[in-house]
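question for whoever is on the cluster today: can someone run the full assembly for these? two chains, 385 residues total. i dont have access anymore since they changed the login thing
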Amino acid sequence: MRTRQWLLPALAGLLGFAAVALCVVYAVSFRGGHGVAAITAIGGPFTLIDDTGAKVTEQTLAGKPYTMYFGYTFCPDVCPTTLLDLSRWIKKLGPDADKLNYVFVTVDPERDTVQSMHAYLSSFDKHIRGYTGTPAEIAQIAKAYRVYYKKIPTDDGSYTMDHSAIIYLMGPDNKFVTVIPYQEDDASAIAKLKSLSGMPPTS
Amino acid sequence: MRTFSKLAFAALLIGFAAPALAQGASSTSITVQQPWSRATPNGAKTGAVYMTIDNKSGTADALTGASSDVADKVQVHEMKVENGIMQMREITGGLPVPANGSVVLKPGSYHVMLIGLKKQLTAGETFPLKLTFAKAGTISVTVPVQAMGANMAAPNDKGGMGNMGGTGNSNSSGGMGKMEMK
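^ ran it for u. tokens below:
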């Protein structure tokens, strides 16, 4: 019974991971540094609302590199842990922290409103912005970023969410750079963020 | 840091004394060691409680349910991150506590999930939690709240001193014994 429960998400996870891995290889090979135009499969247009109620699109983020993490506020463990990790790294970046934008996108738009996202993020570094939207808008950005998420009903009529637990690092051109996997060690994560913050901004 | 080493030393002493205490406390089998929870972000509707459950009897038991004043619902969950995907499931058939063994609830693994938090959990406070076992009945523990970034129970944690439960003849001895230093 329990094995069956895990089977589907595990398979989907495997597929998702393979897709991400492929994209990484793809992206890295094109980012080889010969001035070849970067062709990446992660990222794309979106329209959402941030936790202050303002409309945001990929153009809002263009010009500065950014990190993007998908989660939800009903998440008891992985999401607060990741957002705390990120908050610690942002602090360690010092003045370089302002060279990046940091985005937390909900995969649970039905429960994560503008207000609840804003309240939730007040517990973390103030650089981190929350994005929510309609279920269709969230589906679109998740598809663009190759993010896996799935609503898992619970016995009591409620639900939890399975979701990708990876932080995406994106360039100022909205193009995929690399990822920080779940529970990456501080030194490695900070090195990646430092490197990202060194990417020249575009206008 | 010096305070920490003193506390660690004190905890170590308690740790040595604990096996005797735990065994002497009751003839029953289940003890709950070092329950703890994490402070929750502002407005968060969920929280998690971690602990080690020891079974000193030759009969397997299972954690079948839980309740607390701080949440509408309390469930036992399993969480794992596999291939970069976070997955969480309610354990509906009860979490097995093997005979003469133990089960560890910790971040990234099993946890008691608080759903519909009535208030934000803040570091330093405690709250009551009732755990129901298939055989041992109900065990009440007091759960201390650690900082949001905590990854284990505080070494000087005295919380979780168990009271006699409502239905069972069980007893718990939280806050003593196993040190999970990392």
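summary bc i know u wont read the tokens: Chain B touches chain A through 35 residues (CB under 8 Å). The two ends of chain B are 16 Å apart (CA to CA).
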